[in-house]
Amino acid sequence: MNSKGRKLLVAALVVVVGMAFRVSWNALRDIANAIGADHTAATLYPFVVDGLMALALVATLVLTGDDRKFALRVLGTYTGASLVLNYVHGLVPALHGATVDWGRLADWDPANWALVLLATSLPVGSIYFGSDLVAKVLHHQPAPIPAPVANAEESTETTVKRSTADLPESTPAPITASAVANPVRTPNPVALGFLKSALPLKPVPAIGSAPVNSIGSTPQRTVTVAAASTRPRAATGRVPNVARSPQPKRTQAQLLDEARKATANLPDTKVTAEGIRREIHTSPANARMLRDTIRTERAAAVGTP
Questions:
Q1: 74 in a domain, yes or no?
Q2: What predicted TM-score, i.e. pTM, was given to this entire model?
Q3: Which tens digits make up the pLDDT trace of 144-170?
Q4: Burial class (CB in 10 A: 0-12, 13-18, 19+), 140
């Protein structure tokens, strides 16, 4: 609904409420005259009852939680009280001309006492409940609306993809071309045990024993057998070319050249180890080394220390 339609709706509501208040005002004024109120008090009496209903309705729209329930109870109580007094005004025609006896709202005494008590207690209740509702509305603090986070998706993605490459760590020693070409291979302990068991071992003479004559005697030979292992033995042969990675090993100079090309259009603040690692597909250690090298070269180019 547009703003013009809303204004028309509010204006129509104000007109309907005003006419309804005028009808209820006539009945409540006659009730106030019957219970002993003077002309001024009888004129203000409808504002005490119906006015508190409007106040409770506004408080219901503002408050939340238990305070809102309290405002709803006040609204329901005063709505019911106004309905009862209007109903009595319709049942007793004498109230219209103010010819009824003072303090007489019903022929049956218990009903009359209850109606007089209701009519006289409404102003006192309006003072108490109205003050309480106003205090609750003034002290009510609405829940703060969270501020929108700028670039929320970008910040979340950056946090998820963060690597340890940008953490403050010492830069490892540069990798040389000879170390990459000739990696150090550690022997397989399972293969060593198997070879040891297959080779013949020389007998070890006991300490203090007599020398063994090689003529006409057969020396005792001690054989060591490897312990049986339930684990499957790893392959010790040469890795076939099909199983090897198709990408050749890059030297330090090649990695540095690729990193320079990848960060050529980036400012110094955007040159990070994580970005270099993703662009040229290298290890975090190489990425940190390349980042420091590029930043050093750029600093030397502009003449900064």
A1: yes
A2: 0.46
A3: 766 665 555 544 544 545 555 555 555
A4: middle
